[in-house]
Amino acid sequence: MPVFSVVIPLYNKENYIKNTIDSVLNQTFRDFEIIVVNDGSTDDSLKIVEQIEDSRIKTFSIKNGGVSRARNFGIDKAKSDLIAFLDADDYWYPQHFENLNLIISTYPNHNWYASAYEKKYSSNLTTSIKSPILNKGEEWFGEVSNFFVHSFIDCLAHSSSVALKKEFLNSLECFDATISHGEDTDLWIRAALKDKLIFSNKLTAQYKLTSNNRSSTVDMKDRKNLNFSKFSTEEKNDKNLKKYLDLNRYSLALQFKIAKNNQVFNDLCKTIDFENLNNKQLILLKTPRFLLIFSLKIKSIFEHFGIRLSAF
Question: Going by C-beta distance under 8 Å and a sequence separation of 6 or more, which residues neighbour residue 163?
Answer without folding.
Answer: 4, 82, 83, 84, 85, 100, 104, 112, 113, 114
